[in-house]
Amino acid sequence: MKVPKITVGLQQKIGQPNFGSIGASCVVEVQLDQFESGDGDAIEQRVRQAFARCRRSIDDELRTLTPTTPSGTAPNRSATPPPKADRPRGHRPATDKQVRAIHTIAGKQGIMLASELQARFQVASPDQLSIGQASSLIDAMKETEAAV
Fold first, then answer.
1. DSSP character for 14?
2. What does the pLDDT look like over 26-52, one tens digit per residue?
3. How far apart are CA 113 and CA 23, in angstroms?
4. Which of 107, 126, 127, 136 has its CA 20 to 30 A from that of 56?
5. Which helix (H) or strand (E) holds 92?
């Protein structure tokens, strides 16, 4: 008996200065068992899980990519916040709980997190947000969730 398979693919590109871009892609092949192959809801659930995994993988990959600046040096995008003296006044980094909430909400809603962060805040990762920015993003995503 032939085992039914589903292939799920996702790719994302983020524009950078000077017409550059960074990108990542993910393709997952899911084998269905004999019971799932006849159940539309089960198939849909497996597809959603595969897309969620791809989204997380792409977000992780884009976070690790560090494009170079025109001078040829990589910008400072470390996961640790800059020393207090180097941070703008009132810029306290997002809490671990906020970062986890952002990842969870984005995953549930199918939001391409890296693109959203780049468009709204010009950062590559939620742990680069301030507490205030993280809070406003969580509120905005929750409002979108409630509207759906």
1. E
2. 898 888 887 777 888 888 888 888 888
3. 13
4. 136
5. none
